[in-house]
Structure to design on (48 residues):
């Protein structure tokens, strides 16, 4: 995952009350999927 994805995942996880292991290594694709999942949980998703 990119540095930007990691930062955004940390922010979204905090907002969603989810855990995010800072040592966790994800591919860019895995990070993108996790971001979409957390965006839905936090209401940031544009699709409903």
């Amino acid at each position: 995952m990119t540095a930007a994805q990691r930062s955004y995942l940390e922010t979204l996880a905090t907002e969603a009350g989810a855990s995010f292991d800072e040592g966790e290594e994800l591919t860019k694709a895995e990070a993108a999927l996790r971001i979409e999942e957390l965006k839905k949980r936090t209401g940031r998703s544009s699709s409903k």
About this structure: The two ends are 26 Å apart (CA to CA). The chain has a mean pLDDT of 91. The chain has one domain: 3-42.
